[in-house]
Amino acid sequence: MISSKTSFIALIGNPVSHSLSPIMQNAALQYLGLDLIYIAVPCKDKDLELVLNSFKKINCKGLNITIPHKEKVFNLCSEISPIANKLKAINTLKLNSEKKWSATNTDVEGFIYPLKNLNLAKKKGIVLGSGGAARSVIQGLINLNLSTISVISRNKSSLDELIKNFDNQIQLQGLLNSDDQAQILIREADLIVNTTPAGMKTTKYENNVIPYGEAFWRSLNSQTIVYDLIYNPAPTTLLKFSANKGCMTIDGLEMLVAQGIKSLSFWTDGLEVPFHVMNDALKKYL
């Protein structure tokens, strides 16, 4: 029941109308019996500082930050967790005792949630794409102790920068998607993760496409796990294709739920909600 005492948590981004976060977070807040609601607030670049400063002065208990603000929000925060600093991206904020923004990133924990019990230590992984999401994925794969991590991208400059970012942790192998050597890597990979938007259900991208085209996947073998960070549509064209080849497939829904659980814990100083509460709410909605 929303009353005059109800506080709120908001998702800030542009666009936000496609987000499933309000569905799962409101289910969790209801389960916990908290007098809180979760809303999505579209926010343009030029308004980010104004919006964040305004939210400090009203009954806002926390924020999720999504594209395109995950990096721009850094200079509006007074405390930033080591993982957010390392990833150069923030996705969760709360107000500290001095009414200033304290920031973290829950994407890495979200990403590794469905992989934790798959014994990937000393295995070979491939990351497709070199944008912001690829950073969280690479950090997650490092945490899972993979022996080799290769990144395949269309964009040489963002690929080079990404590899440089992880120089002090691991020697990443970077390839352009047109490189013939990619076929050898795909044949030998234990895990392939798609962080590109190819196949996403939006007007901008055709959602029947497969990252880098079907020919790129010709050497995929049935022992490889294929993980697509996209959760809408489910399954994506890539995951259908991979399942037909006999591969184990994972979509982005578990990551979405797991990072949401970690964000909620950050806002509520450690409260935990069972995974199924958020997951069931999304399954019902989708």
Protein model, in words:
The chain has 286 residues and is α/β, with parallel strands linked by helices. The chain folds into two domains: 7-105 and 254-285, Rossmann fold, CATH 3.40.50; 109-251, Rossmann fold (3-Layer(aba) Sandwich), CATH 3.40.50. 34% of the residues lie in helices and 20% in strands. The protein contains ten helices and twelve strands. The strands form two sheets. It has a six-stranded mixed beta sheet. Helix 1 packs across helix 10. It starts with 6 loop residues before the first strand and ends with a helix.
Show the helix and strand layout.
Blueprint: E1 7-13, H1 21-32, E2 36-42, H2 48-56, E3 60-65, E4 79-80, H3 82-87, E5 92-95, E6 101-104, H4 107-112, E7 124-128, H5 132-143, E8 148-153, H6 156-165, E9 173-176, H7 181-188, E10 191-194, E11 225-228, H8 237-244, E12 248-250, H9 253-267, H10 275-285
Parallel strand pairs: 1-2, 1-3, 4-6, 7-8, 7-10, 8-9, 10-11, 11-12
Antiparallel strand pairs: 3-5, 5-6
Summarize the structure.
Pathway: Metabolic intermediate biosynthesis; chorismate biosynthesis; chorismate from D-erythrose 4-phosphate and phosphoenolpyruvate: step 4/7. The chain is of the alpha/beta class and 286 residues long.
